[in-house]
Design goal:
Layout (H helix, E strand, L loop, with lengths): L2 H10 L1 E4 L29 H4 L7 E5 L3 E8 L2 E8 L5 E3 L4 E4 L5 E6 L4 E6 L8 E4 L6 E6 L2 E7 L5 E7 L9 E5 L6 E8 L3 E8 L6 E8 L5 E8 L7 E3 L3 E6 L7 E6 L7 E4 L10 E5 L2 E5 L15 E5 L5 E5 L1 E7 L5 E7 L3 E10 L2 E9 L8 E5 L3 E3 L7 E7 L4 E9 L5 E6 L1 H4 L4 E6 L2 E2 L8 E2 L3 E11 L7 E10 L14 E6 L4 E7 L8 E9 L5 E8 L8 E6 L4 E4 L11 E4 L5 E8 L8 E6 L4 E6 L7 E8 L5 E8 L8 E6 L4 E4 L11 E4 L7 E6 L8 E6 L2 E5 L13 E3 L8 E4 L1
Parallel strand pairs: 31-39
Antiparallel strand pairs: 1-9, 2-3, 3-4, 4-5, 6-7, 7-8, 8-9, 10-11, 11-12, 12-13, 14-15, 15-16, 16-17, 18-19, 19-20, 20-21, 22-23, 23-24, 24-25, 26-27, 27-28, 28-29, 30-32, 32-35, 33-34, 33-38, 36-37, 38-39, 40-41, 40-59, 41-42, 43-44, 44-45, 45-46, 47-48, 48-49, 49-50, 51-52, 52-53, 53-54, ...
């Protein structure tokens, strides 16, 4: 090093003592809205039980009376000093970086400034010492106790390293010591420190001739006490300096890491012990505790892969003994007394800061501070509504589950208690995100088996089940369950309580089938969630009609007329089946057309219409009493003989009254708007061409837009005509339906 450069450095250095009323005024500040700092611990309290720190901190350094850590808040680091003595944890001042190395001294460097403030955290209220080095080209390479390691490489590629510490002997200038590294050295980092020495890692040579070295520098004099070659492989991690040894992790084969130790003082030969087999490129952290090497692959708590190196493991340097203490390690900091402070966790004790020390039985772990978070994968909270109203928000409901960490995968299952139909959502850690939140935006569909076509979820009781496996392999799999309810309004043509229309069809052998229709917002097609046989023996009836809720139950009903002209009602049970028939009355042979499903008088119940063979239309008001579901008939009017099909629709024209469509013998369809008194307004022509359909069914609101729709079935297939609410043009263009593509096999669809 040149004399001129030395003089320039010394003249540019100065030291300032800043007085403070409390510990480092402006250094220690409470965050906005923070709770008061805990009172000092009583003699009967243990620090491990009283000290609580945030779960996302990372260790920076450890001293005798406390430790320095940081976490990220927003986009900025937040540093804090936590005291062992009184259990307090104080946030340090913003817009600064803080450093430390095996002592209670915290070095503060303000943004955009070249001054360094040394705070003795063991003496609350003491004034910090501020060091200013006049040559701003020198940067901080590391901290060892109260000493700053500064480095600078000039334009001639000459490396200059010096040690800087507080003034002594009444001087006002910082004490500096030059470090004499080889002229071609490239300083890589301050790899480790003890209370009296710093271990500098540097390289020499270029390309394939590059060699790597570790230099032990005496903090008192700046002299290089000894230098050890680590070969042509750079020890990126796992470098450690103890009072008696220099150690690092070598990986000669790429998959078999070894701990190499060299006695300090230059009097011994290197020795090595294997740590087992690891994937190529695995980086391990290293610490020495007496005759034990502690090693770990940091980051296991947030890793998305399992590894045998996630635990904090120990290998005896003298024999093959191995043991593990913690299940994962986030960060470490050697303490002045030779112990090791570890931010990590165990499935048994949870997340926190642990002190690892060597006792008579070997290494042991003591919990110093808790975070209140378990190490095992766990559920923090479930955002599941008590009642999911699937008639609101477009039939969608959002569920959330907050986990303790995001590195998990699994499934969420929503299951209808009565039928077992379910919605299953697999998830990976990509869906959880940094917030560890699983969000299930449920579209209200369920199916009998995973992969089946889904139908709309019925109303009633449900369970949810969350299953998650930790991807890092730490701790058991997680299973949590809960309950909720689904609320739906029963639709006019709904027999299963899921709000969607069910179409009934009878074949020539008298078997009755039910198709639960689905019109999802993501598709223009109407499809069946599955065809189910309701029963047999329905061939004895010559007329079958879906009539909505006549008897005041929870589901739609149907009526059937036998060959003798007796009309029977079948009450829907809400599960897709029907109760035993109830006799309504005889004399219905006089009618050639029967329809139901429109509330014609505004009392909230579906009514029945029938035309007799002379063309008179009659209105039967529903009573809501299953024993006598229809009141006496009321004459609507004559002239209905010209229609070969009538269909009650409910409201399709935009008024809150039951409407009716009728098809004449020429295939023209007409709309009759209900007046609310059982009568109808003058007819409005809808259009021609409807003679191609064999059945016209008022299915209710199939597309869930709040307006009732018309379902048409014919030999060429089926179509859904969505209601518009406009009497002049009550239906949209037809949407294709695959529900009754086999309509030819049925003699009745209703």
């Amino acid at each position: 090093m040149s004399t001129a450069r030395t003089t320039r450095r010394l003249l540019g250095a100065s030291v300032t003592t800043v007085l403070a009323v409390t510990l480092g005024a402006g250094l220690l500040v409470a965050p906005a809205g923070a709770a008061p700092v805990d009172a000092p611990l009583g003699a009967a309290q243990s620090p491990a039980a009283a000290i609580t720190v945030p779960n996302d901190i990372h260790l920076v350094s450890a001293g005798t009376t406390g430790f320095l850590s940081y976490r990220t808040v927003g986009d900025a680091p937040e540093y804090r000093w936590t005291s062992y003595l009184d259990g307090t944890s104080r946030v340090l001042g913003p817009r600064a970086a803080y450093f430390g190395g095996r002592s209670d001294v915290v070095v503060e460097r303000k943004e955009t400034q070249s001054r360094y403030a040394l705070h003795d955290m063991s003496v609350p209220g003491s004034a910090p010492v501020t060091l200013t080095y006049g040559d701003s080209r020198y940067g901080l390479a590391g901290v060892a106790g109260k000493t700053l390691v500064m480095s600078y490489r000039d334009h001639n590629d000459v490396l200059d390293v010096l040690l800087m510490s507080a003034p002594s002997g009444g001087s006002t200038s910082p004490t500096t010591r030059d470090v004499a590294l080889p002229a071609d050295a490239r300083l890589q980092r301050v790899a480790a420190t003890t209370t009296d020495a710093a271990l500098l890692q540097y390289a020499r040579g270029t390309g394939s001739e590059t060699a790597y070295f570790l230099a032990v520098v005496d903090l008192a004099t700046g002299a290089v006490a000894e230098t050890v070659s680590t070969g042509t492989t750079q020890p990126r991690n796992g470098v450690f300096l103890s009072a008696t040894e220099i150690s690092w992790i070598a990986n000669p084969t790429g998959t078999e890491p070894q701990v190499v130790t060299v006695p300090r003082g230059g009097g011994g030969s290197p020795s090595s012990v294997s740590l087992g087999t690891s994937p190529a490129g695995t980086q391990l952290e290293l610490a020495l505790l007496g005759g034990w090497a502690a090693f770990t692959q940091k980051g296991g708590g947030t890793s998305d892969r399992s590894s045998v190196f996630h635990p904090l493991s120990f290998r005896s340097l003298g024999d093959p003994r191995m043991r593990s203490l913690l299940d994962h390690v986030d960060s470490t900091a050697p303490a002045p007394d030779g112990s090791l402070l570890v931010r990590g966790g165990s499935v048994r004790e949870g997340e926190g800061v642990y002190r690892i020390a060597l006792g008579a039985g070997g290494p042991s772990a003591e919990l110093v501070a808790r975070t209140g978070t378990p190490t095992r994968l766990d559920l923090v909270s479930a955002g599941v509504p008590a009642v999911a109203d699937l008639d609101a928000n477009g039939g969608r409901t959002t569920f959330t589950w907050d986990l303790t960490r995001p590195n998990a995968s699994g499934t969420v299952t929503l299951r209808h208690t009565a039928t077992g139909r379910k919605a299953v959502r697999p998830f990976s850690y990509h869906q959880l995100g940094a917030a560890s939140r699983l969000t299930f935006d449920w579209d209200g569909l369920v199916s009998a088996n995973t992969g089946d076509v889904g139908g709309f979820a019925p109303a009633g009781d449900y369970t949810w089940e969350l299953k998650a496996a930790p991807l890092n392999g730490i701790g058991p799999d997680l299973t949590r369950t809960g309950t909720f309810k689904v609320a739906r309004k029963t639709g006019a043509h709904d027999y299963t309580g899921n709000g969607s229309p069910d179409l009934l069809a009878r074949d020539s052998s008298g078997r009755l089938f039910r198709d639960d229709t689905v019109k999802a917002a993501s598709s223009s097609e109407v499809y069946s969630a599955g065809r189910v046989q309701v029963g047999t023996g329905w061939g004895i009836y010559d007329r079958l009609e879906a009539v909505g809720d006549l008897a005041g139950g929870t589901a739609a009903d149907l009526v059937a007329r036998d060959s003798a002209g007796v009309l029977w009602s079948f009450l829907g049970k809400g599960d897709g089946t029907f109760a035993a028939r109830t006799r309504i009355g005889a004399g219905w042979k006089a009618y050639d057309k029967i329809t139901g499903g429109s509330d014609l008088n505004g009392d909230g119940r579906s009514d029945v219409l029938a035309t007799d063979t002379s063309g008179v239309l009659w209105y039967y008001r529903a009573t809501g009493d299953w024993r006598a579901p229809l009141a006496g008939r009321v004459r609507v009017g004559a002239g209905w003989g010209g229609y070969n099909q009538i269909t009650a629709l409910g409201d399709v024209a935009g008024t809150p009254r039951g409407d009716l469509v009728a098809r004449d013998t020429a295939g023209v369809l007409w709309l009759f708007q209900g007046s609310g008194t059982g009568q109808f307004a003058a007819r409005v022509r809808i259009g021609a061409g409807w003679g191609a359909f064999t059945h016209l069914v008022g299915v209710g609101d199939a597309d869930r837009d709040g307006r009732n729709d018309l379902y048409a079935v014919g030999p060429s297939g089926s179509r859904l005509y969505a209601g518009t609410g406009n009497a002049a043009a009550p239906f949209q263009p037809p949407a294709y339906s695959s529900v009754n593509s086999d309509a030819a096999r049925f003699d009745t669809v209703f």
